[in-house]
Amino acid sequence: MPPTFPITFDDIEASARRALDRLQSATEAISGIRAEHSDPDELVTVVVSGTGELLDLRISDDAMRKAPEALASLIVETAGAAAGSAFGSLGDQVRAFTDSSSSDPGPLGAIRFGDGPA
């Protein structure tokens, strides 16, 4: 008689599907992250993605009157603040993904310790 196992293929498949669903949800959430930041005078506004990619840069007419070095510095500072916010959101999404992953027992959750033969 072949041996019996406490974990079935269906258990493994269900666990893999849950893991894939969690990964897809996290990927969608991460790809949807957008952070917008403006300097206090609203001369420069920057929008970045969750990975810090520059998506939009708006420079007011008043900002164009600044010295080139001052404008460059303002753009870099504003972009850095936007990226910091985006990375915070990214961290939140990664934390949520790992929390949901660690709360899923996987196929081992099908094992009922103490229910089998001695």
TrEMBL record:
Protein's recorded name: Nucleoid-associated protein YbaB
Lineage, highest ranks first: Bacteria, Bacillati, Actinomycetota, Actinomycetes, Mycobacteriales
Location of region: Disordered: 95-118
Record-linked InterPro entries: YbaB-like_sf, YbaB/EbfC
Pfam families: YbaB_DNA_bd (PF02575)
The organism's place on the tree of life at top rank: Bacteria
